[in-house]
Write the structure tokens for this entry.
Amino acid sequence: MPGSLRLGKIAGIEISIHVSWLIIVVLLTWSLATGWFPALYPGWSTFAYWAVALLATLLLFASVLAHELAHSLVARWRGLPVNSITLFIFGGVSNIEQEPKSPGVEFQMSIVGPLTSLLIGGLSFLLLLAMQGGTSPLAAILGYLGLANILLGLFNLVPAFPLDGGRVLRSIVWKLSGSLRTATRAATFAGQGIAYLMILAGFWLIFGGDILDGIWLGLIGWFLLSGAQSANSQAMLETMLKGVKVGKVMNTSPVTVPANISLQKLVDEFLLPHGWRSAFVVQVDRLAGLITLGDIRHVPRDEWGQTLVGLAMIPLEKLHVVAPQQSLNEVLPLMVGQDVNQVPVVEDGRLVGVLSREDIMRFLEIKRGLGLDKGST
Ligand SMILES: [Zn+2]
């Protein structure tokens, strides 16, 4: 994720924090030091409030990290690769590379996060009980951690996809109906319903005079709503592309030109007559690079006769290359993420095809046209 700082590794999983997280640390420490702790525990020094507030904030984020680690470790235990965890403004995200393969895996992976939060919250309250409460800084921190973790656990259990509770709901519907697609629809529908209710309740509060709480609730609702919508289309796409290999969708006759011709010849004999805007460059039968109109424009016009295509092209090392046996679910996020429209498909160094976003879209259109998109997967 851009804008994140690496902290280190836990159990082989890279942990980073997003810059937005630093803003939340400042805001939360400030509001705890000037609002929460002084109201509940009067009579401490200003320094004590700030020190306790900072410690409580950092411990809360350690709890969020434990929540995410629980998701990640269970995912890895069930055979899904986990790259990293990023802590950001709304909590954390575990970058788990694939969607769970069965409802059981999804259920275990999703429920373990909120359970971890509830466990930390419960333990904090037990410790507080064991030391018979009191108004010491330790008691204050335990009380805050207990409350915050239990709220975090409960909030994440709200059955609004893509929150953990929504995933739990999805796994249950998936198990009952046998269809991931139906389950995703149901979980997203529930998520959107809850999001609209929150936004409505937010307006209710605003018009009732409780402006700050209203805005806050409305924002959470809006966040859930956009999350549900993008999670839904993402999940639909993944379902439709499931098991489809690059080799099945790619165009097997890519536009190629030799590397040892001049730019002038390239323009006169290949690009202009065929109306091509770019071409893959091959040397003997191996892919060497890609030449586009932009690369040609970079060379002054009077040098086109002497400049070879191989010197003006984007070399192979700078291209994203995929293999025919890779799955589309693996390749599409890469194309979208890097904002590339087409990728060369290479097998043993030879160019065997080209995969473009249009190819993928056409494949999806045909599948939909034949009614093959409604199969239960
Ligand atoms: Zn979670």
